[in-house]
Design goal:
By secondary structure, the protein is an all-alpha fold. The chain contains 3 helices and no strands. It has one domain.
Length: 57
Amino acid sequence: VEEFIHSELLAQLYSSGDQYSLMDEEEVLRTHAALKEALNIITDISTSTISTPLPPP
């Protein structure tokens, strides 16, 4: 079963289902992962940035 999952499962899913729906879902998952990573980077930057007030004119 484990060998089937690693080698044949994706091919079986694409051949038995609606390929466009599967590709759309895969694209949504990739976009979600990219956005999550981007938010983590933004959080890291904003927590490590130190702001100091400007001196009065």
